[in-house]
């Protein structure tokens, strides 16, 4: 016991995390358009590989709802055989970034962009999974999913099968919403497990005509990428997808680590090591042709709240997932797909920060705007482009705020008009600077002192020199520039 002083607490916590992870692993796989077993494999690797490595001691990794949309798009565009190549390349990039100590730079990404990213993912996830709740096929694009929902709902009203599917999905969501209000003794069973368990029981007992998970067997689902598949790495579209996987998986994992650190008093996350641990896990998942992994805040929070003290709990949760996949795979065939979709609709809703957004709009309108634009861009265009638009907006906002410039004019009525520029003169503030300078009298000598400028970019310097040349009226002494920037 001296080697594992907290084994009892970690053992109990591992069972709780396993029960939370099981329906999520299966649900994320089904929603991603891949065999359910691949979600379990990623959960197992998250426990047995990433769980053993150093980085964040209480954070739990596995397939994440946040990557569902991206995986679904990648599988649809490139096919399931190439998923392993994408995930393996993502893992190698994460290992490289960790080795180059780039993990801490993810902490510099605007929180609004990350929250906007998660909100956009949440909206697309909700829209897509509502079709699964209705037993219908979802359109391919984000706007198409949202626009088609009313029609899908009307069509469902005339179908017994669709209504049964809707009842199971809606019942699952209702259980998840109400679970936190039940007595503590009942809540020892994790909400997602209870919701899916009750839906499965209802489906079996009542003989409901709802779709269930297709079972292929653990070994039958493993699809290591072939050597020929690596030739596709020359495709720019595939490389863009790999970059998107890497950025989003890394950002989600490291932001989750920061959130988990706030939940406990144990050792803090070592960001570069954690990035390498995630990379090692994704590399193994890629070799097995499984789903990509990230750290998952739902499982991590459950781990901390269940009393976990060391990384033993997350390793054991991987053992329990492996035992389930090896010994009880036939159980998966009873799980109703609308119930798993209901779990993901609930998870997607938690990714949309409605209350924090209202508070952010009151206090930091610019940040709230970045969040909204990022989320809408992800829904309207795609994940990768949406994140890039958010990052570009965040950089522009920072540049705008950093470029404070002040023009002070002293006119004593006689002699030259003296103007002093101070602060940071960048192209972003150029219209304001020129408007103020062009308002100065043209029939008086003007002295413009630039000594108070901390920074003067090339665009501003050129514009100021051109203004100085043309400002003075004929017969008036030319503008004098006292340079100091």
From TrEMBL:
What keywords sit in the KW lines?
Membrane, Transmembrane, Transmembrane helix
Q: Which residues form the SLC26A/SulP transporter domain?
A: 7-374
- Matching Pfam families: Sulfate_transp (PF00916)
Report the principal subcellular site. membrane
**Membrane topology summary:** Multi-pass membrane protein
Enumerate the transmembrane spans: 12-31, 78-96, 108-131, 162-179, 191-211, 238-260, 319-349, 369-396
**Leader sequence segment:** none
Domain of life the protein comes from = Bacteria
Q: Where in the cell is it found?
A: Membrane
> Which PANTHER family did the record assign?
SULFATE TRANSPORTER
Could you tell me what this protein is called? SulP family inorganic anion transporter
- Name the source organism: Streptomyces gibsoniae
């Amino acid at each position: 016991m001296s080697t594992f002083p907290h084994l009892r607490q970690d053992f109990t916590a591992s069972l709780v995390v396993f029960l939370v992870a099981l329906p999520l692993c299966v649900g994320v796989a089904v929603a991603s358009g891949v065999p359910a077993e691949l979600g379990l494999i990623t959960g197992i690797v998250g426990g047995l590989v990433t769980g053993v490595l150093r980085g964040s001691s209480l954070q739990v990794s596995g397939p994440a709802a946040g990557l569902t949309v991206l995986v679904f798009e990648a599988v649809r565009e490139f096919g399931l055989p190439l998923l392993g190549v994408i995930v393996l390349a993502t893992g190698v990039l994460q290992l490289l970034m960790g080795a180059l100590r780039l993990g801490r730079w993810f902490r510099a990404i605007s929180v609004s962009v990350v929250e906007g990213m998660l909100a956009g993912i949440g909206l697309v996830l909700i829209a897509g999974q509502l079709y699964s709740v209705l037993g219908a096929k979802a359109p391919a694009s984000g706007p198409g999913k949202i626009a088609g929902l009313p029609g899908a709902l009307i069509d469902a009203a005339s179908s017994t099968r669709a209504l049964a599917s809707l009842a199971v999905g809606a019942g699952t969501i209702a259980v998840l919403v109400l679970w936190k209000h039940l007595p503590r003794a009942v809540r020892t069973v994790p909400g997602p497990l209870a919701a899916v368990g009750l839906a499965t029981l209802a489906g079996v007992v009542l003989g409901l005509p709802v779709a269930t998970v297709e079972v292929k067997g653990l070994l039958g689902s493993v699809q290591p990428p072939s050597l020929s598949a690596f030739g596709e790495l020359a495709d720019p579209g595939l490389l863009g997808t790999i970059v998107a996987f890497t950025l989003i998986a890394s950002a989600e994992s490291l932001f989750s680590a920061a959130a988990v650190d706030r939940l406990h008093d144990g050792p803090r996350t070592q960001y570069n090591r954690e990035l390498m641990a995630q990379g090692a896990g994704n590399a193994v998942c890629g070799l097995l042709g499984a789903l990509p992994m990230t750290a998952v805040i739902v499982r991590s929070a459950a781990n901390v709240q269940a009393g976990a003290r060391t990384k033993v709990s997350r390793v054991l949760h991987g053992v329990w997932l492996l035992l389930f996949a090896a010994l009880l795979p036939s159980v998966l065939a009873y799980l109703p797909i609308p119930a798993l979709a209901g779990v993901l609709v609930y998870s997607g809703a938690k990714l949309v920060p409605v209350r924090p957004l209202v508070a952010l709009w009151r206090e930091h309108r610019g940040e709230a705007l970045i969040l909204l634009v990022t989320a809408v861009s992800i829904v309207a265009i795609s994940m990768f482009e949406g994140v890039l638009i958010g990052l570009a907006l965040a950089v522009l906002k920072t540049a705008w705020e950093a470029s404070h410039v002040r023009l002070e004019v002293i006119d004593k009525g006689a002699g030259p008009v003296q103007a002093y520029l101070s602060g940071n003169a960048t192209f972003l503030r150029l219209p304001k600077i020129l408007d103020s300078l062009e308002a100065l009298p043209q029939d008086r000598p003007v002295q413009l002192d630039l000594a108070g400028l901390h920074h003067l970019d090339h665009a501003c310097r050129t514009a100021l020199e051109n203004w100085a040349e043309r400002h003075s009226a004929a017969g008036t002494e030319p503008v004098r520039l006292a340079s100091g920037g």
